[in-house]
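Entry:
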Amino acid sequence: MLAHAGDVGILPPDAARAAARAAQQALAGDLQRWLTVAGVGGLAVWAAAALAETRLDRRAGAHAVAELLAGGRPSG
């Protein structure tokens, strides 16, 4: 669409290139966000599976993980 707008003369070539570059960067940013969401979701699934596998109470497991992330030692 941007190339056609440049060919017809609606947009100067520099403006068409800049708009195409901005659209490409927006798509790349969306891809990066989707990959981040998928990664966080994967970690959540992994953590849920680990908790289920070890048969820990979820509340106690979450508390132990929070203590480990805070730099302490898990109680119990």
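The CA atoms of residues 64 and 70 lie 10 Å apart.
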